[in-house]
Amino acid sequence: MFLQEIGSIPILNHKISDWNLLETVIFCLGIGGTSLRLWCFKCLKEYFTFNITVKKNHKLITTGPYSLIAHPAYTGGGLMIINVIFLWYQLCSYVPEYFPASQFGSFIWLVGWWNIITQSIFLSLIFKRVFHEEKLLKDHFGKEWDVYFNQRKRFIPYVI
Q1: pLDDT: is 159 or 142 the higher one?
Q2: Is the confidence at residue 109, as pLDDT, over 90?
């Protein structure tokens, strides 16, 4: 086992048939989130940027995932983050191999709080970005944005 842990003997992942329901659902959410973000980038075409900006001759995109929700790319990102959180907790099973038993509880506590703090900061920054983006779009498109935004939810259709 030691040789496997240091990388001398390759270990293949579990067979997909060995996954439990939680692992399968989280995997599907990650794939779905990634696919949703890529679909958004394809729909936005030349209007996609990582910076919040309005380009010359900018048009309001209302097709594809944007026909259901106002910010589908952020929804996709949120689905992808669930995989990151799950990965942190999957790594905790390796802790007893590398840390003395006396430090194990402290490490789990630290990882849990680190995860809560970083995800909280991440979410607050995302919401700040969303509100800034909405203000910029409202200023640029005016009434067209109001009509579009009032017919959709922000992140999850018919919910939020």
Answers
A1: 142
A2: no
Domain range list for the chain? 2-150
Instruction: Name every residue whose Cβ is closer than 8 Å to that of residue 109 and which is 6 or more positions away in sequence.
Output: none
Asked if residues 43 and 65 have their Cβ atoms less than 8 Å apart, the reply is yes
145: tokens are 């944005």
**Strand positions, DSSP E, the chain:** none
Give this prediction's pTM.
0.76
Q: pLDDT at residue 122 above 60?
A: yes
**Phi, psi dihedrals of residue 60, rounded to the nearest 5°:** -80, 120
101 band by pLDDT with thresholds 50, 70 and 90:
low
Write phi, then psi, for 153 (nearest 5 degrees).
-90, 165
Task: Give the side-chain half-sphere CA count within 13 A for 148.
Answer: 19
Rounded Cα gap, residues 108 and 88, in angstroms: 10
